[in-house]
Write a structure and sequence with these properties.
Length: 242
Amino acid sequence: MLSKSQIKLIKSLSQKKYRAQHNLFTVEGVKGITEFLNSSFKLRHIYTTKVVFDVIDEDCSIISDIELKKISQLKNPNTALGVFEIPENKPVDMSQLIIALDDVRDPGNLGTIIRLCDWFGVKDLLCSLASVDCYNSKVVQATMGSLSRVNVSYVPLNDFLLKAGVAVFGTFMDGDNIYKTNLPEKGILVMGNEANGISTAIEALVIKRIAIPRFGSLKATESLNVATATSICLSEFKRKSI
């Protein structure tokens, strides 16, 4: 049976300040938990209504559906909740293509972008300090396990780009057509905030402005969702590198 202190701790992890304080985050659902168990992330504990995980007994507690609902951040809890340790920062591999996010705030967008990085083999994702936390439960859910395979680093983006020593690309409405641009195998591709795009300070550090052209006769759509734009850009960068 879950204690009040256990419930309080797990529920507190819905907030960034407590995730940072305890160095813990939650993963919900059997598939997501299994992905993290098969990674380098360290398990703290699993709370589940069914015996489905191959872990030692002391790392897993069988609880009731009612107890799971008390600790879950989902409206309809999914069988199990795992508590994992937030890992230490890892160095960024500058020899490959890197995605950088300039104040992306929506958890669904960040989760999808992490999944896209995993799909296209991008190992490192940079986030500005004002970007949404990758250990936010909505982000974790949206990644569907990909967070366990992509190195997400929160950095002062301006300073990082200044010292990067590689080409910095940025997405803009008035940029060069991405389909007609010679794209390298390595460098940093910056994607901007959902409402404001790339900030003025970061824009000044971009050496190559690229754009996804609009087709059709009206061309009335103002912009693309940042995750959708990231998928198109990654596909084109990787296509050119084959």
